[in-house]
Specification:
This protein has 6 helices and 12 strands.
């Protein structure tokens, strides 16, 4: 019996070829998607950006002389920062009606909050605070008070868990005299952790031309100066003439841009303007 020759159905052949091409195209497309998603997942930590604000809130008293912590919260909320360092914060003082301002701002803004004492004052305490969208792992206060009779100062050192990575944050408010600030900056340098993911921010009461600015920028970078050609002055809020509020960054931090936001109460809610920096880092191997 002879072999029956295969009869090709041209229409059927063309249809099968078309279907095969569709299947191959779909498989190729799925493969590309899988590869792309894998690359994106591996790079997501590198691409994530975060924001930090530093703000001297003058214990909630605006340039109009009114104590209004809710107004302070509105200004902070408008910036939508992930991490906030605050200066001149009251904790249970008579002048602030016994309010624990860091805790109150944390509740108003739905953020983690920790207060760092600098001095006892008016039946309570006065100092700095840290607010964070991310969990605060630990918090340490380091005394920066000098032998002078001027106001006691401190710096806090904290570690924050940012999506599984650790970021070190230090916040401070330095003294009013140059000699005092020089001693305080020396002390900060002594306690700087050996970390590349480090941010030090606050009201430093010095200008970029000062010796103390030069001391710090030998070890840290001026994040706001890296993110904009000319960082604006920060004090006084209603007619800024001096730049005294800073966000310094370690070697592992990349400045992206300075945060800009408009809120009608920014120029009256405090005597300082808030400063905001958007930043990112690469994950450790």
């Amino acid at each position: 019996m002879g072999t029956i020759p295969k009869v090709w159905d041209e229409d059927s052949f063309l249809q099968n070829a078309f279907l095969n091409r569709k299947l191959m195209t779909r498989s190729f497309f799925i493969l590309v998607l899988l590869l792309t998603s894998n690359i994106l997942c591996n790079c997501s930590a590198q691409m994530d950006s975060h924001s930090i604000m530093t703000y001297n809130i003058r214990h909630g008293v605006g340039l109009d002389g009114v104590l209004d912590l809710e107004r302070t919260a509105r200004v902070i909320s408008a910036a939508n920062a992930d991490i906030i360092i605050l200066n001149e914060v009251d904790q249970g003082t008579a002048r602030s009606y016994g309010v624990h301002q860091a805790d109150s701002l944390g509740r108003l803004l739905d953020l983690f909050a920790v207060f760092g004492r600098s001095i006892d004052y008016d039946g309570g305490q006065y100092g700095n605070a840290l607010l964070s969208r991310y969990p605060i792992l630990d918090f340490q206060i380091i005394d920066l008070s000098t032998d002078s009779l001027l106001e006691g100062r401190s710096v806090f050192l904290s570690r924050i868990d940012v999506k599984g990575d650790t970021l070190v944050i230090m916040g401070t408010h330095l003294g009013l005299s140059p000699e005092e600030r020089q001693e305080q900056v020396k002390r900060i340098i002594e306690v700087l952790p050996d970390q590349d993911r480090l941010i030090v921010a606050g009201d430093f009461n010095f200008e970029p031309t000062s010796d103390t600015f030069g001391m710090l920028t030998k070890l840290l970078r001026d994040g706001l100066a890296e993110s904009t050609t000319e960082p604006p002055p920060t004090f006084p809020a209603n007619n800024p003439a001096r730049r005294i509020d800073y966000i310094f960054i370690g070697g592992g931090i990349s400045a992206i841009k300075s945060g800009e936001f408009n809120h009608p109460e920014t120029t009256i809610a405090s005597d300082h303007l808030p400063q905001i920096l958007h930043f990112r880092w690469s994950p450790h191997d």
